[in-house]
Amino acid sequence: MYDFAYQKPGSLADAVATLSGDADAKALAGGMTLIPVLKQRLAKPSKLVDLAKLGLGGITVSGSTVTVGAMTTHVTVADSADVKAKFPALAALASHIGDEAVRHRGTIGGSLANNDPAADYPAAVLATGATIKTNKRSIKADDFFTGMFSTALEQGEVITAVEFPVPEKAAYEKFPNPASRYAMVGVFVAKTGNNVRVAVTGAGQGGVFRHADMEKALSAQFAPDAIAGISTPVGNMNGDIHASPQYRAHLVGVMAKRAVAKAG
Length: 264
Fold this sequence. Notes:
Helix content: 25-40%
Number of strands: 14
Structural class: alpha+beta
CATH superfamily of the domain at 168-264: CO dehydrogenase flavoprotein, C-terminal domain
Strand content: 25-35%
Shape: globular
Largest sheet: 5 strands, antiparallel
Distance between the termini: 48 Å
Radius of gyration: 18 Å
Order of helices and strands: EHEHEEEHHHHHHEEHEEEEEEEHH
Mean pLDDT: 96
Number of helices: 11
């Protein structure tokens, strides 16, 4: 691990000022991705700006919206009675992120800001058309994810909360790596009225993405059979020691059908 300065500001304004004034400074949320990267000397930040004292945690439910503070841990979302009652698919997703240690330290804001291509939360955010709130603006999910480990966040911009519009029906199914529990393929399906959104994580070369063909078919008929004949282009799939592009493309269809069946 390289040397760096550690700061734990007491206000969002102070954190933003530090991050805005130093391009090499990094924000620290739960640290479940950043700390291992630092240990392996794959990053060399000048400063770590710890967001723990900024009061960005917590969950509120208002009407058909569930708002989750950026520093809310995965286990808090998973165990929340409000989330289980209003948006059970989100609670279920959070309950299967990583292992117990990761769920107690990792945060939704950190997961989204990092935008790991195999992370779970991006699928829920994109499938529901959620809004990412920052210290500067509100960013729609369709505009937020710009590529693998890449987002629309600018220097000095900090996620403060995520607003989820609660769908009528929703479910998430993933095929996890047995060691890391990251999604080798994960599919989140959300239905509101005649509109269905399908988001895939863990599979695409550019990170999380929407599956337009499945969305069209499911908007006409919300049933697993409606997408039985729909394939996913292999050329857009990741391939590694865990799964080939062809296998991941196949898994997209399998996980999507399971998610539709669970939601329906």
